[in-house]
Amino acid sequence: MAKRKLSKFTDFTAPTTPFGIPPGIDPDRDEQESSEDCEDEKLKQISESGSITVEKDGHFIHCLTIIGQIEGHYISPPQTKTTKYEHVIPQLVAIEESEEIEGLIIILNTVGGDIEAGLAIAELVAGMKTPTVSLVLGGGHSIGVPLAVSAKHSFITPSATMTIHPVRMNGLVLGVPQTLSYFDKMQERIIRFVSKNSEMKPERFRELLLKTGELIMDVGTVLDGDNAVEEGLIDSIGSLSDALTCLYDMIETNPKEKRSKKYIEKEEPKNNEDEKAQEEI
Fold first, then answer.
1. Half-sphere exposure (Cβ direction) of 118: Cα atoms closer than 13 Å
2. Whether 62 is catalytic
3. pLDDT tens for residues 86-97?
4. Which of the residues 134, 142, 150, 198 is marked catalytic?
5. Residue 174: which H helix or E strand, with range?
6. Are 182 and 127 in contact, with CB atoms under 8 Å apart?
7. Beta bridge mates, 68
8. Number of independent structural domains in the chain
């Protein structure tokens, strides 16, 4: 009997294991690789934006770091560590509109920077309904002061410091009365914001602002952690664990409202059906 020749187009079915999984495929390995990819994405997010979203006990919180110099309308030198306000502002909008993120912790270690950029970020944080907590590590100097007090509750470590000094400007300055008036108005904006979002009175903040004899080459005051709390500038002394505990307590006692269009649209048909039922009765 002639042997039957197999066509090269004959279909072959790959052998399988008793559980129907083709050999060479490890589902546990795939899950591990997926987990590693997720971790890589988190590390990439930290390196690119200095922020990360984490989950604990069913609550998602976002960590935002403000470090180095706050960069505004002008690009800082490449050797300077900066926080770009055009990167921070969209993050704050996304956090406020997110249905999953329930809290925001802001970690500061900044020397200050552009006044208008810093105030823009501070005003956004102060106007958020999302529970917010700030933590000053190392230093929260200059325009970092309004950023620290913009959260609903502020913390500072005992070793951290905050420098309060008058507004200054780099570059060309015209020696005319209008320039001094502009400086004074900008200074009043900062004083107004800080006194509104902290326990420090405007008169006391202005006194520390213009204090002489403490800084060698400048006018102003340096406050350490304990002094910042005593003056009413910062709410509490604490570390990361204290700030996180406070944030989770705020989430539990005052949860973020999750009201979006899709939730409203889901409820509308129920209301219409109830109205029709009442009309028929």
1. 29
2. no
3. 899 999 999 999
4. 142
5. none
6. no
7. 110
8. 1
Question: Token digits for 256?
Answer: 């973020």
CA dist., res. 239 & res. 250, Å (int): 17
Residue ranges making up the domain that contains 85 = 53-272
The alpha-helical segments, DSSP class H, found in the chain are 27-49, 85-97, 115-126, 144-149, 177-196, 202-209, 225-230, 240-253, 261-280
DSSP letter at 151 equals S
User: Would residue 12 count as lying in a domain?
Assistant: no
How much is the CA Rg of the chain, to the nearest whole Å?
28
Q: Which of 141, 165, 195, 198 is an active site residue?
A: 165
Residue 29 located in a structural domain: no
Q: Which residue has the tokens 């956090």?
A: 95
What is the CB-side half-sphere exposure of residue 272 using CA atoms within 13 A? 6
Per-residue pLDDT of 243-265, as tens digits, reads 999 999 999 887 766 544 433 44
The answer to the question of residue 83 being in a domain is: yes
Sorting pLDDT into bands at 50, 70 and 90, what band is 82?
Answer: confident
Query: Does residue 79 belong to any structural domain of this protein?
Result: yes
Can you tell me which residue has the tokens 């102003």?
220
260 is catalytic: no
- Burial group, residue 70, by CB count within 10 angstroms (0-12, 13-18, 19+): buried
CATH number of domain containing 180 = 3.90.226.10
Question: Strand, coil or helix: what is 71?
Answer: strand
CA distance linking residue 66 with residue 83, whole number of Å: 6
3-state secondary structure at position 222: strand
pTM greater than 0.85 (yes/no): no
